[in-house]
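Quick one: Nitroreductase family deazaflavin-dependent oxidoreductase from Streptomyces albireticuli, structure tokens please.
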Amino acid sequence: MTNTAAATADSPSAAPTAPAAPSAGGNPFNLRVIEEFRANAGRVGGRFAGVKLLLLTTLGARSGLPRTTPLVHLEDGAGRLVVFASNGGSPTAPAWFHNLTASPEAIVEVGAERRAVRARLVDEAEHDALWARQIAVDPAFADFRERALRAGRTTPLVALEPVTPSH
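--- reply ---
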């Protein structure tokens, strides 16, 4: 994944297909969220009730297998969905970010809709404004950002842009 275009996989056909069963690398919490999301056309309860969630299915960088992760997202108004590789403020980026770095083609589920996307790093000119918007929606993201900065890591923001199949 580069700032301007996909580094690999020039064809949308390289994007993973969402698995029939959830696959969250064995994380029981994420598996429950994925199952609830799919059973209710994108709506989930509990601490994620009313939160804008999507399911991102990437190809595992090492395994090559589809990996699905529920993520909070921000709609930017330009047809892109922006996700934050904060990993809760951890000093390391989340696995899904490493997967997109290896192969930027992915599948996104928003509500009951599924679509192919290509990941692109958000450029520096947009970075702070998108962070400010997300923090206004969910103040916990300010803590995630600060913890990552204290750990010496700038949190990448990733734009998931729709891929139009070529004819």
